[in-house]
Design goal:
The protein has 138 residues and is of the alpha/beta class. It contains two helices and five strands, in the order E-H-E-E-H-E-E. A five-stranded parallel beta sheet has the order 2-1-3-4-5, with helices on one face. The chain is globular. It starts with a strand and ends in a 24-residue tail after the last strand.
């Protein structure tokens, strides 16, 4: 089987709030995928450079999809996205599952940040990106 992965998160979807933690978790997931020797693309909003647009790529080009970081609610955005990539093996990484898992869990593999079943530390804490001090004026 030829494995190619699409990495997706709130940095991929319009009208969603992207945090620094989302970006750090994305970069870490990409490092892990590279270290495992797999090919991947990152779906990015046009405001970010590089990447692909998940709305126009051929879903058949990907065997796996990794949704990284953030809350993962059952709503129109997530449903539209999941329908488009229903032929892929779905992996949830570092997600806060809003619905109880016995009600809704679309993932073949889920390593949640928190859910009705359990919790794990946020993977963004493993990021080796330089920390920038926050300075503010009130």
């Amino acid at each position: 089987m030829n494995i190619k992965i699409l990495v997706v998160g709130w940095f991929s979807l319009e009208d969603c709030n992207v945090t620094a933690g989302d970006m750090m978790a994305r970069d870490l997931a990409c490092q892990w995928i590279e270290q495992a020797g797999y090919q991947y693309d990152v779906a990015l909003l046009p405001i970010f450079s590089g990447g692909v647009d998940w709305r126009i790529v051929d879903p058949a080009s990907y065997s796996h999809l990794v949704f990284v970081c953030g809350p993962f609610p059952l709503n129109k955005i997530t449903n539209d996205f999941l329908k488009r990539f229903n032929s892929c093996r779905l992996i949830g990484l570092d997600l806060s599952m809003i619905e109880p898992l016995n009600v809704w869990n679309p993932f073949d593999v889920l390593i949640e940040r928190d859910s009705s079943v359990g919790s794990h530390p946020d993977i963004s804490f493993l990021s080796r990106q330089p920390k920038v001090p926050v300075v503010g004026i009130s």
